[in-house]
């Protein structure tokens, strides 16, 4: 089914494709070649798609290849994590979570009410005091306390829009820290052992739940605090108020954000732990990521940053690739 | 203890890429018109590049114009892939596989067919990668499977970068052919 002309086009497409990362790539010449004949475009599509397919399935392929090559270090023992299978697991999990939600929801008699979202869903909840809570994908909270709501964020992220009323305080508890609020708009994240608080309007105070004598940290609009409880480190940064809880629009936007911060955000949507290697920790990202079902976030990041992925023991390491 | 460690970090956003894009917009549209076969789609792609770099990128970039091209190439490939899925769906090939998570239909998810077939496909790819021509495939595997950059592969095999590119082109060509047969 493949005639000589097609094969010529494939050959040329492969040659162009192999040079895409070259510093002296002739983009104008490549463009001319593509435009010269529609068959060139088709040939290039087929080569680039195959290359991308191999890249996506690399860990699974590595596991199947004979061991006499020097793959040694990081080839996973089983051919498990192909991208499709991850996505498949994610979808199944989403459906299962949706089902669980139906079963859990009608427990009104209980003092604490639990809300959970699946991997593809956000959810809006109006609290008993009239405040609005929005849950991100794959999140779980329990709400108790009625007029002075206590919200425990077990996993994921939630944003809050709290009506001003000096007579009561809304408390969000996440990973051993209390965020107190008297009327503002803010978001809290608790994912993979990292806590993050970002304020869009007004101010909140943040302190460990068990008092340790330290002064609570006050965050005002346009600030974000990232806490690593295990290390006892917190970093305060500037954040665009409009970008607070931008996940509710299905996007994540950044302006010169350190890669570890971006990865902390997207790891909430990933099915495997993500680790930023020291080689890549200095990279910064600016731009907009589309969340979708979460499976494309790393690809979007890799499209703009010099990163390569290494999978080892079920963990995905992000390393800085050589020059591009 | 933790309050002592609160550090204030200002994000310094240097400029550059947006300016490069603005200055080279006609050239980019022309290139992507060739890549996609449609000026309208090329305009869309360049617009999408804008989104990806809406704010100045701080990572050091040696050749911003090449970088913008590569971002666009990734965007186009995503579109090609999405179209492929749509075509297969329209032909009823994977009709039963669109699951609904919340309000969104997840057509990014694999079809049942693809999942079942995935293992077989991976085996097929691995076999082709282990096949001839041996030298080209070894270079290709080091780059694509082990994640080494062209420069790193060149150093390891003590060959020039252009030789690496030639090996990779040869490998791609053979892989395409082996998997089409």
Characteristics of this structure?
heterodimer; A: 324 residues; alpha+beta; Jelly Rolls; 13-stranded mixed beta sheet; three-stranded mixed beta sheet; 27% helix; 33% strand; elongated; B: 181 residues; mainly alpha; Arc Repressor Mutant, subunit A; 2 domains; 3 strands; 5% strand; globular; disordered N terminus
Largest sheet of chain A: 13 strands, mixed
- CATH fold descriptor of the domain at 111-247 in chain A: Jelly Rolls
Radius of gyration of chain A: 24 Å
Order of helices and strands of chain A: HHHHHEEEEEEEEEEEEEEHEEHEE
Mean pLDDT of chain A: 77
Shape summary of chain A: elongated
Oligomer: heterodimer
Output the structural class of chain A: alpha+beta
CATH class of the domain at 111-247 in chain A: Mainly Beta
Question: How would the blueprint of this fold be written?
Answer:
The complex is a heterodimer of chains A (324) and B (181).
Chain A: H1 4-18, H2 27-36, H3 38-56, H4 58-64, H5 83-104, E1 113-116, E2 123-126, E3 132-135, E4 140-144, E5 150-161, E6 170-174, E7 177-181, E8 185-191, E9 194-201, E10 203-208, E11 217-220, E12 223-228, E13 233-238, E14 251-258, H6 259-266, E15 274-276, E16 284-290, H7 297-304, E17 307-312, E18 315-320
Parallel strand pairs in A: 5-6, 15-18
Antiparallel strand pairs in A: 1-4, 2-3, 3-5, 4-5, 5-8, 6-7, 7-10, 8-9, 9-12, 10-11, 12-13, 14-16, 17-18
Helix pairs in contact in A: 1-3, 2-3
Chain B: E1 7-9, H1 17-36, H2 39-52, H3 64-90, E2 99-101, E3 104-106, H4 112-130, H5 134-144, H6 150-157, H7 161-180
Antiparallel strand pairs in B: 2-3
Helix pairs in contact in B: 1-2, 1-3, 2-3, 4-7, 5-7, 6-7
């Amino acid at each position: 089914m493949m005639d000589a002309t097609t094969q010529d086009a494939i050959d040329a497409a492969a040659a162009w494709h192999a040079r895409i990362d070259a510093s002296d790539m002739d983009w104008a010449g490549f463009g001319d070649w593509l435009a010269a004949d529609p068959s060139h475009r088709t040939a290039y599509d087929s080569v680039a798609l195959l290359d991308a397919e191999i890249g996506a399935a690399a860990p699974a392929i590595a596991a199947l290849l004979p061991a006499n090559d020097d793959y040694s270090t990081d080839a996973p023992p089983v051919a498990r994590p192909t991208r499709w299978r991850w996505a498949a697991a994610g979808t199944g999990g989403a459906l299962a979570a949706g089902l669980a939600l139906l079963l859990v929801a009608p427990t009104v008699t209980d003092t604490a009410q639990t809300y959970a979202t699946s991997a593809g869903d956000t959810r809006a909840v109006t609290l008993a005091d009239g405040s609005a809570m929005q849950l991100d994908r794959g999140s779980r909270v329990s709400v108790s306390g009625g007029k002075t709501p206590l919200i425990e964020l077990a996993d994921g992220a939630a944003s809050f829009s709290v009506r001003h009323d000096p007579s009561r305080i809304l408390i969000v508890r996440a990973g051993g820290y209390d965020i107190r609020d008297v009327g503002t708009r803010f978001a809290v994240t608790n994912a993979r052992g990292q806590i993050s608080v970002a304020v869009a309007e007004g101010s909140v105070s943040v302190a460990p739940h068990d008092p340790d004598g330290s002064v609570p940290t006050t965050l005002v609009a346009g600030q974000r605090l990232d806490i690593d409880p295990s290390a006892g480190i917190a970093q305060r940064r500037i954040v665009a108020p409009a970008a607070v809880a931008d996940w509710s629009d299905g996007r994540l936007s950044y302006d010169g954000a350190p890669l570890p911060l971006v990865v902390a955000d997207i790891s909430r949507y990933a099915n495997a732990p993500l680790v930023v290697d020291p080689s890549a920790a200095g990279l910064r990202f600016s731009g907009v990521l589309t969340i979708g079902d979460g499976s494309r976030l790393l690809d979007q990041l890799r499209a703009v940053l010099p990163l390569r992925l290494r999978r080892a023991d079920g963990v995905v390491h992000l390393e800085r690739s050589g020059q591009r | 203890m933790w309050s002592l460690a609160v550090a204030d970090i200002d994000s310094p956003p240097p400029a550059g890429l947006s300016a490069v894009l603005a200055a080279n917009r006609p050239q980019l549209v022309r290139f992507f018109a060739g890549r996609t076969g449609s000026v309208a789609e090329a305009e869309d792609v360049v617009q999408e590049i804008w989104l990806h770099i809406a704010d100045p990128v701080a990572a050091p970039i040696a050749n911003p114009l090449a970088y913008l091209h590569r971002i666009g190439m990734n965007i186009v490939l995503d579109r090609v892939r999405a179209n492929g899925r749509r075509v297969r769906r329209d032909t009823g090939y994977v009709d039963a596989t669109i699951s609904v998570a919340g309000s969104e239909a997840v057509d990014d998810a694999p079809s049942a067919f693809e999942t079942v077939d995935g293992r077989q496909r991976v085996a097929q790819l691995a076999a082709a990668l282990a096949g001839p021509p041996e030298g080209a495939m070894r270079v290709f595997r080091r780059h694509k499977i082990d994640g080494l950059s062209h420069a790193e592969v060149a150093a390891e095999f003590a060959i020039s970068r252009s030789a690496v590119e030639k090996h990779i082109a040869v490998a791609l060509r053979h892989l395409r052919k082996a998997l089409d047969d």
